[in-house]
Amino acid sequence: EVDELVRAANDGELVVDEDGATGSAARFVNKTVIVTGAASGIGRATTQRIIAEGGRVIAVDLFAERLSELSAAHPEGSIVTVRADVTDPQSVQEIVTAAGEAPIDGLANVAGITDGHRPLHETSDEIWQKVMAVNVDGPFRLTRALIPLMRGRKGGAVVNVASEASMRGNAAGTAYTVSKHAIVGLTRSAAFLYAPDNIRINAVAPGPVATGIEGAFASEFSERRIGPFMRMIPPVADPAAIAASIAWLLSDDSSNVNGVVLPSDGGWSVQ
Ligand code: NAD
């Protein structure tokens, strides 16, 4: 059944329970969720999963063409695409406005970039600022914009995407590691502040996932990132597996979970 759900989610099919639009396969019926980084990898899989469970996604990314493809593959009304750069402060209002009249139930801050595994002494100001702008400033501004709206309706869920690099110093380059530690701080601070408003803020920390993010650095991956410090070679996850963790934290199934950083890494982080 789970395989079928994941397959359906990957294919962008709408899965509805036998007894109607309830149950674990339809947790997002009548819900609107903003997903950044929606054109690729984990963000795309998250978008597909939420739509497959009956939800409506405001899909945000830099790449208009890939957003159009994503939109074309889903039923009308289930997806609104916004071509926006999360580092641009002006984009925040545009993203919120795209939701229309419907209340926004969730936010998945998935957009992220790597630093190409650069050590500190090879990190230029430009790389540092760019990585911080996408991985930290973007989630900060979007969360800040949504908190008053979620407070107004007494509830909401935010999921940030952390990383193995949120927990160790040797899983990525310096700028990326700092940015992913920072997103954990943002998660915990916001979870503490807005728990009384029934707004939950959690993070997912994926291990390696088969997406485009490593790009040109794929060959360096095992040498620089895994080799030096890992006894256990981690499973490389399908983006749908991370999307399932994000969807759980966005859904009411995790209603008593707040402020956690959930490893979604096949156990890699236990060693
Ligand atoms: P990906 O490159 O496949 O997708 C990232 C998406 O974010 C792309 O579509 C890209 O266009 C978009 N994006 C980048 N900068 C943006 C901006 N300024 N504004 C709007 N959109 C922007 O990568 P992915 O692996 O799916 O990464 C998603 C998240 O998961 C990132 O935060 C990443 O750090 C994290 N992560 C990935 C892995 C992995 O192994 N793939 C592991 C741990 C954490």
Automatic annotation (TrEMBL):
GO terms for molecular function: oxidoreductase activity. Keywords: Oxidoreductase. It comes from the Bacteria. The keyword Oxidoreductase applies. Signal peptide: none annotated. Belongs to the short-chain dehydrogenases/reductases (SDR) family. This is NAD(P)-dependent dehydrogenase (Short-subunit alcohol dehydrogenase family). It comes from Brevibacterium marinum.
